[in-house]
Amino acid sequence: MAPKFGTSGLRGLVTELTDALVGDYTRAFLAACDTGGQVFVGWDLRPSSPRIATAVIAAARAEGIDVVRAGMLPTPALALASMSAGAAAIMVTGSHIPADRNGLKFYLPGGEVSKDDEQAINAALGRPAGARSAALAEGAGIAEAYVARYGAAFGAEALTGLRIGVYEHSSAARDIMRDALARLGAEVVALGRSDVFIPVDTEAVDPATGDLFQTWCEAHGLDVIVSTDGDADRPMVSDATGRIVPGDVLGPITAQALGAGVLCTPVSSNSAVDAMGFDRIRRTRIGSPFVIAAMEAERARDPAAPVVGYEANGGFLLGFAAQGPAGPLAPLMTRDSLLPIIAPLVRARAAGLALADLVASMPGRFTASNRVEGIATETSRAFLEEMTSDPVARAAFFEDEPAEASVDLTDGLRVTFQGGDVVHLRPSGNAPEFRCYAEADDRETAEALVARYLARLSDRLG
């Protein structure tokens, strides 16, 4: 399948992301979207990313657009730098998917491109290559500015007394995480650095990783372990037992810590947030462009609204000028991993609680998620169409559950059963895989629902 826009950004097989195709999409982006006359280019640690970034840079310069080569860095650090400069950005990353795939994420001077922008980019494909040679500058101080943002907001003693493991793997933020946490006073233990790209999906943490976290916590006496996905716009956090804290739990805790009143989050996120006292919860389709669109609508409705967004994967978007314990924190309208790592830890420490105890204080709803890989998009769509249009087929597929209480088709198929359990089925927008989300009143039931229906999906579609 040719590269295409998915849930967030352009994705495809590395073999199909040729220099010619990358150049075509770069030219289309520069022609269709406002760039501010300059574009920042960064990349992750996939083996193919430097080559693709070189093609992006060459195409942009040939179009007469000045380029800042930011290097290998987290996506939110790149976005912060480009937005601060009033410039566009292109990040070369496939996020959490395997290294045989890669992609491009596009940023305007105001933040991530919208779905309308993606359509405009597609419509501008096929332009002839330019013949100019615009300026090329090396990015300087970008990582430091990103780290300093959180040091200034939370203070040098915010995490004093905490012993934090950093699972480095092949995260683009592996060095930045250590620096940022140490700057806030934490004792940092580096873990699991890898020279081979590891596709970490913060919504589908495999049992082996959970076992590894438990072992590390016990061996090193850790209070928490933190990490991110490949391009570091999604957090991964465990408590002192190695148990993963879901992203849709980190999100509302972070929102509370910052004093947010309006939350925008996908329909797949934990419904516990509805009972946490926020002014308004706005549900969206899955993907940061939809969350951003909802946030922008809320800001248009009330420019002073303390609005934030987050996804079930933990990526957090700050839409207002917040106040940290030590200083102000400016808006950053792109998914970030550091903020939803730092803010819950600071909140727990300030309350004299372990992270697990802070999480346990939330309303008692639990989510789980995972995916079946290797399912062709066409197969997934046909199955989903059957499930959404045929109640008899749907009842047969969910034969082990109570009767349906409601069906939500906002994004995929989300069924709430009598008694309150929820199963949500949705093909991935970025890869040939099918995702299953579940929600229940206890963790074990949510995890069992995901395991049951992933097995059923695998038998049916695999």
UniProtKB/TrEMBL annotation:
One of its GO terms (biological process) is carbohydrate metabolic process. Its cofactor is Mg(2+). Gene3D superfamilies: Alpha-D-Glucose-1,6-Bisphosphate, subunit A, domain 3 (3.40.120.10), Alpha-D-phosphohexomutase, C-terminal domain (3.30.310.50). SUPFAM superfamilies: Phosphoglucomutase, C-terminal domain, Phosphoglucomutase, first 3 domains. Residues 4-124, 145-242 form the Alpha-D-phosphohexomutase alpha/beta/alpha domain. It comes from the Bacteria. InterPro entries: A-D-PHexomutase_a/b/a-I, A-D-PHexomutase_a/b/a-I/II/III, A-D-PHexomutase_a/b/a-II, A-D-PHexomutase_C, A-D-PHexomutase_C_sf, A-D-PHexomutase_CS, Phosphoglucosamine_mutase. The keyword Magnesium applies. It holds the Pfam family PGM_PMM_I. Keywords: Isomerase, Magnesium, Metal-binding, Phosphoprotein. Residues 407-452 form the Alpha-D-phosphohexomutase C-terminal domain. GO terms for molecular function: magnesium ion binding; phosphoglucosamine mutase activity; phosphomannomutase activity. One of its GO terms (cellular component) is cytosol. Its EC number is 5.4.2.10. Belongs to the phosphohexose mutase family. This is Phosphoglucosamine mutase. The gene is glmM_1.
